[in-house]
Amino acid sequence: MELHSLRDEVTLRSRPDFYGIETLSARYLKQTFKPHAHDEYLFGVIDGGVHAVWCRGEMHRVPRGSVVTMRPGDIHHGGAGSETGWRQRMLYIPEAGMRVLVKDITGRVPTGTLDFGAAFHARPDLAQRFSVLHQALHASVQRLSRDVALDALLGALLRELAPQLSASEPQSDGRIADAVAYLDSHVEEDVSLDELCRITGLRRRQTIEAFRRVTGLPPHAWHLQRKVLLVKHLLRTGLSPAAAAVQAGFADQSHMGRHFRAIVGITPAAFAKG
User: Which own/partner pairs from 124-129 qualify as long-range (CB within 8 Å, at least 24 positions apart)?
Assistant: First the structure.
């Protein structure tokens, strides 16, 4: 991603009810950071420019396509590594939340501080996936979308940068059919992954994987297509796109319109006219 802005642009999202995580999306040109550390695990990606940062005893020039993995307590400081600054996406996970999430993904309770090797990894493919998932985690208004994005993002980091933590387990589909029926009967609601786990009797990661095996889609995508189907029905009955968006549980008409067109292929207004 190219950097064109002449000023710093930063957004931070705090989610105390979602494992205490914080997400940050920033485009920095003039920002400099004094030496500091975080109490949380810090995972990030540089998706534009170059970040010059000191960490673990040496100075690094971290370019676009780099993945960042810092442990709680890692001292670091720095700023722009070029005149055009840098863009980063960051995810902060408290240690307590990290233990819960890692146990859910691997089936084992982690002991001690997790080791991801180096603090910076030149992994363009992983960095691209990180950016896409982080965007959903940072910006999505739907809980299921954030749930699945966090699981996929952290799962990819563990699998590719800390394979020693991975554990293979027998597959189980639990009561996925009941979870599918639950989503189908609660189309207009903002359902969470924890609700589905209580139905399936599986952990978060197991529920997502089983749902994908049975339906071909992760739970948030399944629920989203059901919402779009409801909007189609409501539009056919004469409801306006704005009213249909509210009734189907979308954040607003614009949010509904983006997903409607991506699934149906035309705008809600054009569908209603047809």
Answer: 124/65, 126/67, 126/156, 126/157, 126/160, 126/161, 127/45, 127/46, 127/47, 127/64, 127/65, 127/66, 127/67, 128/65, 129/153, 129/156
d(CA 169, CA 163): 15
For residues 88 and 119, what is the distance between their CA atoms, to the nearest angstrom? 15
Contact 44, 89 (CB under 8 A): yes
Give the model confidence (pLDDT) of 229-260 as tens digits.
999 999 999 999 999 999 999 988 999 999 99
**3-state secondary structure labels for all residues of 107-150:** CCCCCCCCCCCCCEEECHHHHHHHHHHHHHHHHCCCHHHHHHHH
Give the CB-side neighbour count of residue 21, counting CA atoms within 13 A: 24
Judge contact between 90 and 31, C-beta under 8 A. Answer: no
